[in-house]
Design brief:
By secondary structure, the chain is mainly β. Helices cover 4% and strands 52% of the residues. It contains 1 helix and 28 strands. It has a 4-stranded antiparallel beta sheet with strand order 1-28-27-26, with no helix packed on it. A hairpin with a 4-residue loop joins strand 10 and strand 11 (140-146).
């Protein structure tokens, strides 16, 4: 075991110190529109949610303590919702036509009417309700809570039934910092980033218990996490250094690493174009998928410190929100994403 781990660390270091990526001649991402948000003078943004049917985009502004609503197609600012402590991950439940928002300072999930943005119900949780994932098939909202924000050495994943508007279960996790999660419906699993442990937890959703903990060589400050169910691959973005880790979701084996922007907080896999978009304080990394296990960065661009992003494939648009900078106000930036040619897919 010791020898294997040493070899893996050596391989990871070699990959990290490899040659610079070959950038595309024609940029994939090009600026399309910017919506200025001068009223948001302090703090940044956390995560997005989309209501595709009603052409709406939502994002939480943490320090500003608001939920902001935009028109999805062109980014026009439509409204602001107030009454939050420190809003984090939002999820739009189409069957209820409601937004569910995890709030760390309030220790709760708020149920929000759309489009009025009025809070209609509060579901109490532990303090530190933050990262979450919405399972649209089951209607369950998995919310990480507790941990450091709760002055505790452990966390939990609260299970919110969006139809019943209540917590229906809680999964204990030995971590103080739960980050991104991904659901594997076929196998009934939930993959969870444990940033303080530098681990991936694999949770059995039937027993609602942790069935495995994976140590990934070289992984540090693992924040965004995505699952490609077709190839059973996890895409995990770490920090210090900015690095993409491709991991076999069947066994936790590290398959490859690729350098990406620093302080990543947003990631989307574009299945149609076989690309990965990772945003961080350092900018945006556009990566093309070479094969099932490898990516190559083909574009890197400035996002004005914008860390969070979401891609809407029906519009071929990428959305990035950034805080106020020395040169301008906070804003929502929209980028047009060029389709890949057939021989690139």
């Amino acid at each position: 075991m010791t020898t294997c781990r040493t070899v893996l660390h050596a391989c990871t270091l070699a990959l990290m110190l490899g040659a610079a990526p070959a950038m595309a001649d024609t940029p994939v991402a090009t600026p399309l529109k910017t919506t200025l948000l001068p009223e948001i003078e302090q703090g940044g943004f956390d995560h997005f949610a989309v209501d595709l049917k009603d052409n709406l985009l939502f994002i939480t502004a943490e320090v500003h303590k608001t939920v902001e609503m935009f028109r999805l197609s062109d980014g026009a600012h439509l409204g602001t919702g107030t009454g939050y402590g420190f809003p984090h991950t939002p999820a739009y439940a189409p069957r209820q036509h409601q937004l569910f928002v995890a709030d760390g300072d309030k220790g709760a999930v708020f149920v929000i009417d759309v489009p009025s943005l009025k809070i209609v119900q509060t579901i109490p949780l532990r303090l530190g309700a933050d990262e979450a994932v919405f399972d649209s098939l089951s209607g369950l909202f998995y919310v990480g809570c507790g941990g450091a924000k709760d002055s505790s050495d452990n966390s939990a994943i609260a299970i919110i039934d969006t139809a019943l508007h209540k917590e229906v279960g809680r999964i204990p996790v030995a971590s103080t910092n739960i980050e991104s999660m991904a659901v594997d419906h076929e196998r009934g699993l939930l993959y969870v980033n444990l940033r303080d442990k530098k681990q991936i937890a694999v949770i059995d959703l039937k027993t609602r218990s942790v069935k495995a903990l994976w140590d990934i060589p070289g992984l540090n400050m693992n924040t965004p996490l995505l699952l490609d169910t077709k190839t059973r691959r996890l895409f995990i973005a770490g920090r210090k250094p900015g690095m993409l880790f491709v991991v076999d979701a069947a066994n936790g084996h590290l398959l490859s690493t690729t350098g990406v922007v620093e302080t990543a907080d947003g990631a989307t896999y574009d299945e149609a174009n076989k690309r990965l978009y990772i945003s961080g304080a350092e900018g945006l990394s556009v990566l093309k998928r070479v094969d099932a296990d490898h990516f190559e960065e083909i574009q890197r661009m400035d996002t004005h410190t914008g860390k969070v992003s979401i891609y809407e494939p029906s519009l071929r648009q990428l959305y990035v929100a950034h805080a106020r900078t020395p040169t301008g106000p906070a804003a929502l930036d929209i980028y047009a994403m060029a389709p890949a040619s057939k021989n690139q897919r």
